[in-house]
Specification:
This protein is α+β, with helices and mostly antiparallel strands. The chain contains five helices and nine strands; from the N terminus they run H-E-E-E-H-E-E-H-E-E-H-E-E-H. Keywords: Metal-binding, Signal, Zinc, Zinc-finger.
Length: 245
């Protein structure tokens, strides 16, 4: 059984094993939980030394914040000295506390804590593996394998040869190693930087390094216009309350 919800609080509730029955009508329930939680419940710790194991980090965080859901290294951030670590929490209080503290210590070393901002995700068709549309709008005559590009129903596509059908490169057709997808994401980020008002309220997106300006700034896209309107409305409301008090 698969459960879908648009409510983030319900999603977090369903990610906690204690909220599941172990057995229903003599049927054992085995839940398959997501590896990580939505970004609004995630923090990022940068440049953690490699000599501190991920298990040590998990133990340190768990001792201070009981609602730790997951703690994992970010793929692609590891160097010969450091790497970045993402930590998810099921309780909003723990998330807010660690962010407000701004720091956390591992093995007598102090590290800065910042909010985790997700990079823009691409809408990729599950039928043809091309960006920019969904399966309902796809004009492809058959479902294409993302590994070899062949007909997904015909032949073996578990161990088929990997060859991108977009650029003929040796990678999956849905991966960012493909120059077609990389360019599409670059154009998408460029458009969002030009028109940040198209972002929903209270949403921030992380700009990948390859999509930033030469000076590396800014590294975040946010809807400043809506945030300013919200701040102005809050100020006016406070002013009116003080005026009539």
């Amino acid at each position: 059984m698969m459960v879908l919800t648009k409510c983030m609080e319900i999603f977090i509730h369903l990610c906690i094993l204690l909220n599941y029955a172990q057995e229903i009508n003599n049927i054992t329930i085995e839940s398959q939980l997501p590896k990580c939680l939505p970004p609004p419940f995630s923090v990022l710790i940068k440049f953690v030394h490699n000599h501190i194991s991920i298990d040590e980090i998990r133990q340190e965080v768990k001792g201070k914040y009981f609602s730790q859901y997951s703690c994992n290294e970010l793929i692609g951030t590891k160097t010969h000295r450091t790497r970045h670590v993402r930590i998810d929490f099921t309780e909003r209080n723990d998330y807010n506390t660690i962010l407000n503290n701004g720091q956390i210590s591992f093995c007598s070393q102090l590290y800065t804590v910042s909010e985790f901002l997700e990079a823009p995700k691409l809408l990729v068709c599950s039928k043809c593996n091309s960006p920019g549309h969904m399966k309902k709008q796809c004009r492809s005559k058959y479902d294409r394998c993302r590994r070899c590009g062949g007909h997904r129903i015909i032949g073996d596509h578990v161990e088929c040869s990997i060859k991108c059908h977009h650029c003929s490169g040796e990678h999956l057709s849905t991966g960012y190693k493909c120059p077609i997808l990389a360019d599409y994401r670059f154009q998408l980020v460029k458009e969002l930087k030009r028109h940040p008002k198209r972002l929903p309220e209270d949403v921030q997106l992380f700009i990948p390094a390859q999509c930033r300006d030469r000076n590396g700034r800014p590294h975040v896209i946010t809807n400043y216009q809506k945030n300013e309107q919200k701040s102005r409305a809050t100020y006016n409301s406070t002013f009116n309350m003080n005026t009539h008090s």
